[in-house]
Design brief:
3 helical TM bundles of succinate and fumarate reductases; 0% strand; elongated
């Protein structure tokens, strides 16, 4: 006897599927590429690596823009993961909403602090 689920099938979870899977992969790839760029710049640097070398790496405008893009990508990457975990494992709606708001506020504050540090160099 075949079971016909039809349109009444109850799917549980975050319900975002492919879009979020793809967003996670794209943001992770961007962060990995950024890491390789920074490591390449460090490998090509001669002499001891101190504050001067680090500030020199991030002094150029293209590196600041790339770093800002990575901050945004990392924040979105974390948000997608945390949202899915919270939607899957925290069942009381009020607690889940509170944790999601806290996550958004925390990620916004971290990104703002990162930008402040980046443009202060």
């Amino acid at each position: 006897m075949a079971v016909n689920y039809g349109t009444k099938r109850n799917v549980v979870g975050a319900h975002y599927g492919t879009r979020d899977w793809l967003a996670q992969r794209i943001t992770a790839s961007l962060m990995a590429l950024f890491t390789l760029i920074v490591l390449a710049q460090l490998a090509l640097t001669k002499g001891p690596i101190g504050y001067d070398k680090w500030s020199g790496i991030y002094a150029s405008q293209w590196m600041k823009v790339l770093t800002f893009t990575v901050f945004v990508a990392m924040s979105y990457h974390i948000w997608v993961g945390m949202r899915d975990v919270l939607m899957d494992y925290v069942k009381p709606v009020a607690i889940r909403l509170g944790l999601q708001v806290f996550t958004i506020v925390w990620l916004t504050a971290c990104a703002a602090w990162g930008v402040q540090v980046l443009w202060r160099l």
